[in-house]
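Long-time lurker. I teach an intro course on protein structure, and each term I like to show students one example going from raw sequence to a predicted 3D structure in token notation. This year I'd like something fresh instead of my usual example. Would anyone be willing to generate the tokens for the chain below so I can use it in lecture? Attribution to the forum is fine with me.
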Amino acid sequence: MCHTIKQHIPKPWLSTLQHMEYIDHHKSHIDTHLLYKMSSAHSIFVITSGRGSVVCLDRKSQLEKGMIIFVPAGASIKIEGSPWTESELQYYKLDLMLVEVKEDISNQSPTKVTTEQHESLAGNEIQEALSLIELNYTPWSSCLEALEQILRQQETTDWMEQWEVQLRFQDWFRVLLRQSDPKTETPDERARLQSSIRYIGDHYDRTITVDELAANIGLTRASYTRQFKRITGKLPLDYVNTVRLERSKQLLQLTDDRIHEIAQNVGFSSEYYFGRRFKQYAGISPGLYRRHHRQEVRVFAPYLEDFVLALGIKPVLQCSHHSWGRQHYLELDDVPEFDVSQQEAQFNLGNVPDFIMLGKGYDRWNLDRFEQVAPTFYVEHLGEDWRSILRSTADVLGKVNRVQDVIGAYEDKALEAKDRLARYMRGETVAFLRISASDITLYGDQQGYVGPVIYQDLGLTPHSRVQQWTRHERRIFIGLEQLSQLDADHLLITFDTGNSAKPGDERELLERDEWKRLPAVKSGNVYEVDFMTWMNYGVISHRKKIEDVLRFMD
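-- Reply from a regular --
Happy to contribute to a lecture. Here you go:
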């Protein structure tokens, strides 16, 4: 009999997340492998990077990025990383606690095998009961996003926040079980598709067609393509090229092979076609990618300096604006300024960059005119997805090994601050305003420079009008009548001098009766913050936002 997760967890809605951790084998304290014994809790392993193997009951199975493994209570496993891959084996480990409900289960299959039950079971039955079960979750990006959020929040001491963590886990767990339901796809079909994915990983350097892949596992081309995309989130040939290009990155970093040799080694017949696909995928040419991983680069990254500096690279220039000035919070006092508001500004002879990075809005400053000066990389991610911007920046600048430490340090800082604020704020409401000589801007709770940090990472409570008016917008303009309704307990404000005809114009609002009548103003709970620090994305900017909030509210 083949055991399914339903036999281990017949009532999944009674499961709770007992503990969760993120494990990087490279940083673990055990030489090459980790041993786990699932005593009274089931566990789920979600592989996020690298390759390796898992041994259970003397059976060895391969692990690779994208796999999700359920390990039943009572099982002992050994996980080993592969020494033949550059990416270290990394994964989430989730321990599940089951709420016991007394009922007659005499006609049901056992949900777990305890030590006392081992003696009454035959050897094959024990192996079946303790065998590993592979699960599915697509799209993969949604799976990782949910787990990342749960991990950040799980250490909270606030009992309502703890409930929120469990609700988020239940949402994730429900999707996982629904997509892994044998009724929607037979175990044999899942196994065949996984074998096809492994085949691609082993034979990416050969000519591969969709018809061949489909025929190998007995599916029509249409059925194979549909099921393959459901599991991986990619069309089959796109997935093949992704595997090839990721391998080519490793060869560019680790070998001195010529570009055309690397192209052939990973399955591209043409160096020209390889170069074109590589640039589409990585954002830069193969030769530039190799160079950046071997030497420091002189980079110009207007309004992306935060990301470059966080990775340990000092930019050759820092951007500034005639109205807003420069980003003082980055402390680049010895780095020359480049005024992006001067549409025809050019580089000085001693400050010509080797590499240019441009984010969203580059056309506002006419910065794409510098494509002829140096190779240019365009960041495609939205600012809220700063982690992905940091990862892509690290990839093109050869600093991938620093990313997890930078992100981890931020998340630790945010989690500690969130716990401290929960004890002090006790549900008091907050709003953020950007004030200029002509406008009052209210920032939303879900997007933008502010919302994801103060309302999500720090767990502050947005005023009801913030949620009602912005409706998931980054920001909205409000008038004095709306301002009068913003009776938040605390106000964070910053002043935009861009529309000021003379110094101080932007502060005239503070003399209005509508402002003076606000509860936060009367109670002295208005906090002015630095404009450039708060009107930016990036891990350094966000860290300083946390420090500001703690300074004012803790």
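Some talking points for your students: The first helix runs from residue 5 to 8. DSSP finds 22 helices and 21 strands in the chain.
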